[in-house]
Task: structure prediction
Amino acid sequence: MRKRKITELQRISPEEFKETQKIPLVVVLDNVRSLHNVGSVFRTSDAFLVEAVYLCGITAIPPHPEIHKTALGAENTVNWKYFEDTTEAIKELKQAGYQIVAVEQAENSILLDKLQLKADKQAIIFGNEVHGVAQEVMDLCDFCIEIPQFGTKHSLNVSVAAGILIWELFRQLQ
Result:
């Protein structure tokens, strides 16, 4: 098989991306400290037509060369908004009719392979690389999704977890 050239991939332009209908999904980053993780989330969000990325607390905002290094320009195509406090982002999303979902290992979490969305508009929250989603944020969530893991490690990198969840929600929401 022949690998396709970039010119054969028929990607849309940034202008066309802005006009393209997005899936009703907002990705919320709760105090994510790594700029590379932030950039990666932007790039994945671009790939799967995510409506917006909400950057909260210590999460860095564009423009920034370290975000750009992994986002490769997706930070300029995907809509984003900054909130000093994640709870304020959640309040705004709830008022707009979004179901609020944490991605975390928690009591009564729903394993990803059992997830069946019941609402049209979703907001998924990814937490800090060390501490996860803050408990005060968890308390405001409608439910929690957990990615099943079978090895010796107890967590995934934020950008890897985001890629897995964004793909699954894209699949269910499109």
About this structure: The CA atoms of residues 41 and 142 lie 22 Å apart. The first strand starts at residue 23 and ends at 30. The mean pLDDT is 97.
